[in-house]
Design a protein that fits this description.
The protein is an alpha/beta fold. The protein contains 24 helices and 16 strands. It has helices spanning 10-22, 55-60, 62-65, 86-99, 107-113, 116-119, 141-159, 175-187, 190-196, 198-214, 216-230, 234-258, 272-284, 322-337, 351-363, 371-374, 394-411, 419-439, 451-455, 462-478, 495-505, 507-517, 521-540, 548-572, and strands at residues 33-34, 45-49, 70-75, 79-84, 125-129, 163-170, 264-267, 288-290, 297-300, 310-314, 341-345, 375-376, 381-382, 385-386, 389-390, 447-448. The strands form five sheets. The chain has a five-stranded parallel β-sheet. Strands 1-2-4-3 form a four-stranded antiparallel β-sheet. Strands 8-9-10 form a three-stranded antiparallel β-sheet. β3 and β4 form a beta hairpin. It is flat, with a radius of gyration of 29 Å.
């Protein structure tokens, strides 16, 4: 029997199907889907097509079926409406959260991995390339967005039990490094590099590019410097390695603040030699062609729908291009990881690049490449600036966010943390604000950066999610009630409890949709609603001062809400705060 469950806990559905099967009412496949309307009590109804039932047997077993699991079965002309009892729905939802909770920091993985939808997913090896900044250049808004979205994609694939390899692919090769090497000899200083790091390299890069705009010979000299680098020139290689090591060290500090790690760090420079081998093989097979006017080597990818599509792979001087090295990197990864899927989390402006990559890979026999699975595009961020002016470095954004958050925490009357942990808390809140602002809308939608949104203490924001989690933690610690292992959920009769439990039951469905669509906004919006429901419950469902059994039941409800909120925050890539 095949059962598709979307909004009802699997525990309930299993029992429902067992009852109907044992009663021999089902003689075909059963598909359970959420009702388009709710019952007067606002409890879920689920509709099943009547063509799959033996109506005569259903009438015979009607009374037997309507036990503590099923409240009512309403036989209509086209549909059979099955209404689950409130008792079964509450106990199943809360029991499901309890049974699969672990206190080892990975509760979100366990919670979702026991969802039937997750278990039905075939376990795969998946490579996710994201972040991928250029060395010696600012870590710009596009790289930040790639880092946040890519981290979510890696997280949610791990939640579903896939083996994920997280790769950071550094841009450390190309003509610009020849120009930078030339610029460093003219304007650079090793002492300034040690003191200021990437900021000094960027200053040099700006100066040499300005000079090259006025003097074409400087640009030509930069091209020659890169040619020397590709041919293993000792001095250039030493200089380039110094640039790269400096950039990697500073970027690692940023990743640490963001709470993100990678399984592998690759560099373009690792693949320029194998890229040349690919070019040579393509030339032997007469796939590579050369332009008579420029000497550039390319692959003709034209088709009736795209008559002018081609991919440049080699310059006239024999140096490789970014696409060449990307081809070599993709083939290297497939041989090393034997992946089922690979995702490049890169902004939508690079769509043509990945179309070319897929078509060239297909042309040389790598059928695993697929544009739908390969490129995960996203919209652009605008207006990202600090008090210093237009932003250049990610560290500026993180420092600014932390500084502003420190100011707000110090002025807030509700702040309960000591000064010695305020700085760390402000940093976590700053990162959460950045992450949630980035993920709260569809990924293809660009947005204008807003400090007010990042720092907002109220409304739908990252800070409000963290505040709700910290408040729930405080309730568990200070309610005077010991967290129970068993409670009477029938005591939760208030409509605020109904709404909260029904929303908790939807978590698995929401995460599954976010997984299928690679859309974290679904989880963000779910968490926003969850926090509104938690706050409404706080106002109506007092724990302190209540009779023992009622206090325990309410605390158990709030605890379950915290488990779900914590799981959602972790999947999105943020660290839930215990106090603030």
């Amino acid at each position: 029997m095949s059962v598709s469950v979307m909004a009802v806990p699997q525990h309930i559905t299993s029992k429902l199907v067992n009852f109907l099967t044992r009663s021999q009412c089902i003689h075909s496949f059963l598909r359970v889907t959420p009702a388009t309307k709710t019952s007067p009590s606002n409890l879920p109804q689920y509709f099943v097509s009547s063509q799959h039932f033996d109506l005569e047997k259903l009438h015979q077993h009607r009374t037997k079926l309507c036990d503590h699991i099923i409240e009512n079965i309403d036989v209509q002309s086209q549909w059979i409406s099955i209404k689950v009892t409130r008792h079964a729905f509450f106990n199943s939802t809360m029991g499901y959260i309890k049974d699969h909770e672990q206190w080892n920091g990975h509760s979100h993985k366990t919670l979702i991995n026991h969802n039937s939808l997750c278990n039905a997913s075939k376990k795969e090896k998946i490579v996710v390339e994201y972040s991928s900044p250029n060395i010696a250049k600012p870590f710009h808004a596009g790289h930040l967005r790639s880092t946040i979205l890519g981290n979510f994609i890696a997280n949610i694939n791990e939640v579903y039990g896939h083996t994920v390899t997280r790769i950071n692919y550094l841009g450390d090769w190309g003509t610009q490094f020849g120009l930078l090497g030339l610029g460093f000899k003219k304007f650079g200083s090793e002492s300034e590099l040690k003191l200021k790091g990437i900021e000094h390299l960027f200053e040099v890069y700006v100066k040499i590019n300005a000079a090259a705009e006025k003097n074409e010979q400087i640009r030509k000299d930069g091209v020659e410097y890169f040619r020397k680098l590709e041919h293993g020139d000792g001095d250039m290689s030493k200089l380039w390695k110094m640039f790269r090591d400096c950039s990697i060290e500073q970027n690692n500090n940023m990743y640490k603040r963001l709470g993100m790690t990678f399984d592998a760090v690759e560099c373009e420079s690792m693949h320029f030699e194998s890229g040349k081998e690919i070019v040579q093989n393509l030339q032997k097979e007469n796939i590579l062609k050369f332009r008579e006017d420029s000497g550039i080597g390319y692959v003709d990818l034209s088709s009736p729908g795209e008559p002018d599509l081609h991919a440049n792979l080699i310059k006239s001087d024999g140096t490789t291009l970014y696409l060449t090295r990307d081809l070599a990197a993709a083939i290297h990864r497939y041989k090393k990881y034997q992946f089922h899927r690979m995702n490049y989390v890169v902004d939508m402006a690079q769509s043509l690049h990945f179309k070319q990559l897929v078509k060239v890979l297909s042309a040389i026999g790598y059928t695993w490449s697929n544009i739908e699975n390969l490129h995960v595009p996203f919209g652009r961020v605008s207006g990202m600036s600090t008090r210093k002016g237009q932003v250049v470095f990610l560290s500026d954004i993180l420092d600014e966010a932390k500084s502003r958050m420190m100011e707000r925490l110090s002025m807030a009357k509700t702040t309960k943390i000591s000064k010695d942990v305020m700085e760390e808390t402000a940093d976590v809140l700053a990162v959460t604000g950045l992450v949630i602002q980035d993920l709260k809308d569809r990924k293809l939608k660009g947005y204008k950066f807003s400090w007010e949104q990042v720092l907002a203490m109220k409304g739908d924001s990252g800070v409000s999610l963290q505040y709700a989690h910290a408040r729930l933690c405080s309730l568990e610690l200070n309610s005077g009630v010991v967290m129970p292992s068993e409670v009477d959920l029938d005591l939760l009769v208030e409509p605020e409890a109904d709404r909260l439990v029904r929303h908790l039951a939807r978590f698995g469905e929401v995460v599954h949709s976010a997984y299928l669509e690679y859309e974290p906004y679904l989880i963000v919006q779910y968490l926003f609603v969850l926090v509104h429901l938690i706050n409404a419950a706080f106002r109506s469902l007092q724990v302190k001062g209540q009779c023992h059994d009622l206090a325990r039941s309410r605390l158990y409800l709030f605890h379950s809400a915290r488990v779900i909120l914590s799981s959602g925050l972790k999947i999105l890539g943020t660290r839930p705060l215990l106090q603030m």
